[in-house]
Amino acid sequence: MSYVLENQPYDDHEDLLKKDLLAYVDYGKLYGKRILSWPRYVIDGDDVSPISASAFPDAGCLPMNIAEGSPEKSKIEDMFGNLVIMRVNEGELRGNYFYGPDQEPHKYNSIINFSKKPGQSVVEFRSFASHNASCRLVQVVYLEGGKMDFSRKPSDPVFPYDDQAAPMAKFVMVAQVSHGKRLLYGPFEMQEAAGRSDAYEIDASQSFDRFVYAVDEASFKFNIDVERDDGMPFAQFVDVDELRELIKDPVESYDWMSASELLDACGRLAKSALPNITKSDVKALKAAIESADYVDSMISMSPMRRKRLLDMLDSRESWDEMSDERKAAAIGEIPVDKLAEYVLSDDHFARFYEKVSENDEVRRRAEAREAEATARVTAAEAKAAAAEAKAKEADAERIRAESARDEQKRQIVSEIQEELDEKRDELRQLDDDRSELENRINELREGEYAAKSAIRKVVNDFREEQAVSEHILKSVAVQELVESLGAPSGARVDGGRSGEARPEAASPAIVSDQGCMKPGDVLRRIEGAVVDRAGREFSCNEVANILICLTQGYITTFAGYPGTGKTSLARILAGALGLVQPSARRYSEVSVERGWTSYKDFVGYYNPFSQRVEPANSAAFSAFSALDSENRTDAAEHVPYLMLLDEANLSSIEHYWSPFLLACDRREGSPELSLSLGGGLSFSVPSWLRFVATVNFDHTTEELSPRFLDRSWVIMLEPQDFDFDNGDFAREDADFSSQEALNIETLQSAFGLRPGGLDVSSASRLREVVEACREAGMSVSPRSQVMMRNYVSAAQEVMDVSTAATADDPVDFAVCQKVLPRISGTEESAKPVLEAILGVGGLPRTKRHAERMLKAGEGSGFYQFFA
Predict the structure, then answer these.
(1) What segment(s) does the record annotate as region Disordered (predicted)?
(2) Where are the alpha helices (DSSP H) in 3-93?
(3) Are 88 and 132 in contact (CB under 8 A)?
(4) How many CA atoms lie within 13 A of 80 on its CB side?
(5) d(CA 140, CA 567)
(6) Which tens digit of pLDDT belongs to each residue from 527-575?
């Protein structure tokens, strides 16, 4: 029964559940984990119905991620191709995270797992060739090279155009304009030519008796196009049953059966009726051909084929009618072995011998040949006898040589065996000695490890006891000394509630009319202070990068070798933001010391003997105390406070800065961070506090933990012309004491998160990096992905992206400062990730640092950002 093309399309994906969907698939880039499908038709029994784009809004596309455990994307494409039979097994499709204006037009996103059994994956594919539709749908193809002559089978392969689906149906029709109409010629069966993926061998189908028909394309009622994503036709199909009806009255028809096949059919007819066919029997054979049917000849005997066979018989000649040249050619065409077989057979030899014997000349020649052959045989026998004698002599010599050789070999083998036995005994003894030494070494190592662990525990216990004792003794001694002089000491645990005044952060002079400033105005103001007044060699986009990190991140890390100006840059930023006014200083520097294990080493601790809180670092203690007082007021505007952790990795940041790691994930409306120092005293930490950490690359520092790197932006500072850390400033007279401050609300408006989404190019590039990392074995955490997305949302509006050199700066900065610092490992784990990132184009800054990391790790086999 023919397929029926329905007019009513499907417009709801839930109606398509567990149905066979004829779909076009785009596999995209090879290293990604995402493919796109465009379902075009539903094949349901004998009904074929179109699918509306509204079934998979907005563009009729269903994207899907390839599940873990599936084959590589290239293998999937080889297995299924771009034209597949697709099934959706679950009606509840997931939403697409990137769906929206200026992003992707695909509302849904799904998943396909090629390792699951049929029916278990949310979406599953089946190759078109394995579906019964491949036998019921006749594929229409277009060939390169102009018009084709369909009157005979071509000797060379044909070349279908490469912008259409490769021939994959059982039957294929070739479209070609002829007689002013577009005709479909066929049906053919096509197979890939050996060693060629773009060329095909073409032949008339045996199922259609090797006839080729021309049918007007307009005659087909069933005629469908499967379109690509751009709306262009990718594959065309007609119905095979409708084709069988139309070829009954074709525009043209051709017989592609070869002459040899027809002769075979003729032979089958003659074999049964005329085994010794002669010229007089030809008429009888012709009569048999004219009345033959399929059963007699095993082929379809159409009038056209009967005429071809009769014409071939009419061309038969008798031997006497042939010319000498024709006779020679005929004899030359007979294989010698076949001719000899014929002459020497029992049926023909006697007759042939009689004819030859009657000829005197032939007899004389035969006798001469016989005498010559006898002489040759006699000479050959003499030579054979001499050769046989020589062979016997040589054989005797060979036996003697082999005997001597075997004796010598036995002696050599015996000597070697004795030596080998001695060596084996020595080796066995050495193995026993080695095993004994290894056991002894393992015992010593275990003892060494136990001893070191015990020593380390004793030392740590001693250090803790010594530190506590020193603090207590020092506090008690100082307290007794101060009280003997009649003066107060330390900070009471009531935090000033007993009459002691707590420090307060003074309000600085701020820029007027900040609400009217645009992001570009804010950027130019700070860029002028950093570049023009302080002389730092930064581009406008580099300044914007620092400000976005500082505004959106709770802590920003300046990394680089000593002398690259990390500390001085923090001072310049504080000055440019108006935070170093003499009467209202909102910038402090904390020099991190070795051995800090808790935030109490960083800020302060409660002394139970003196019942006071002792500041561990006066700058940090004073800053947090002032910010606590400020946070208790209800000010309309808040000026940021910047705290520098200089040489932050001299101690483990994750230990002494641990309470602030939680603040990195703080969201608007969540409770503020409270820093408890003991004895009932705690500092509330406001949201306008920001940290800057400087870290060096050398063996004297602690490694930055993945937990910290997941929350911090890491800005790599390149060496410049001057050593800023040693005071050799480009502008030593840079004075920011009168620089007016910008409030935190202005900075967040200029450099904070934008409510809109990312542009399509940036979102695609970020997704490409994340997928490349995941495919190489490293997952980028959701926190880092959100931070990069928020960063790019602001950077794409603030940075200059008008040139080819800066167009990708927003994504380039984000990837370089969030993804690369997390990479640390061996050649097996880290190197593939770096190489995968290098495969993402358009990120020159990221590429430069990734190449630096690869080069630095060549010798040791260990790759890391801080190297």
Answers:
(1) 388-411, 488-508
(2) 73-80
(3) no
(4) 24
(5) 71
(6) 999 998 988 989 999 999 999 999 999 999 999 888 888 999 999 999 9
- Is the Cβ–Cβ distance between 658 and 599 less than 8 Å? yes
pLDDT band at 446 (very low <50, low <70, confident <90, very high): low
**How many alpha carbons lie under 13 Å from residue 578 in its C-beta half-sphere?**
21
Pick from 82-91, 119-128, 169-178, 324-333: least confident = 324-333
Pair 54, 11: CB distance under 8 Å = yes
CA angle centred on 552, ends 551 and 553, rounded to 5°: 100
Q: What's the mean per-residue pLDDT of the chain?
A: 84
Residue 489 to residue 607: CA distance in whole angstroms: 12
Omega before 58 within 30 of 0, i.e. cis: yes
The Cα–Cα gap between 395 and 392 comes to 5
Least confident piece of the model among 7-21, 353-367, 370-384 = 353-367
pLDDT above 90 coverage of the chain, percent:
47
Residue 813 neighbours by CB under 8 Å, 6+ apart:
541, 545, 791, 795, 845
φ/ψ region of 420 (left if φ > 0, alpha if ψ in -120 to 50, else beta) reads alpha
Helix (H, G, I), strand (E, B) or coil at 20: strand
d(CA 277, CA 271): 9
Find residue 580's DSSP bridge partners: 585
Residue 221, token pair as written in the block: 């009622």
- Residue 626's nearest CA partner among 488, 493, 495, 490 is 495
Contact of 146 with 158, CB cutoff 8 Å? no
The CA-based angle 464-465-467, given to 5 degrees, is 65
**pLDDT for 753-797, tens place per residue?**
888 788 888 999 999 999 999 999 999 999 999 999 999 999 999
SS3 letters across 236-269: EEEEHHHHHHHCCCCCEEEECCCHHHHHHHHHHH
Give the span between the Cα atoms of 61 and 24, in whole angstroms: 10
In the predicted structure, residue 332 carries a pLDDT above the cut 90: no
Q: Is the pLDDT of residue 492 over 70?
A: no
Is the pTM higher than 0.70? The answer reads no
* Amino acid at site 51: I
pLDDT band with cut points at 50, 70 and 90 for residue 491:
very low
Element holding 189 (H helix, E strand): strand 181-192
Do residues 214 and 240 lie in contact, with contact meaning Cβ atoms separated by under 8 Å? no
| pLDDT above 80 (res 685) | yes
- Residue at token pair 């490469």: 162
CB-based contact 62:123 (threshold 8 Å): yes
Sequence-ordered list of residues with C-beta below 8 angstroms from that of 155, at least 6 positions apart, any chain: none
Please classify residue 166 by burial: count the beta carbons closer than 10 Å to its beta carbon, then call 0-12 exposed, 13-18 middle and 19+ buried.
middle
Cα 201 to chain centroid, rounded = 35
DSSP assignment of 488-508: --SEETTTTTTSPPPP-PPPP
Neighbouring CB atoms inside 10 A of 207's CB total 13
pLDDT at 497: 38
How many Cβ atoms from other residues are within 10 Å of residue 44's Cβ?
A: 14
Assess whether the previous peptide bond of 187 is cis (omega < 30° from 0). Answer: yes
Query: If you search the block for the tokens 């070999």, which residue do you land on?
Result: 409
β-strands 181-192, 200-204: how paired?
A: antiparallel
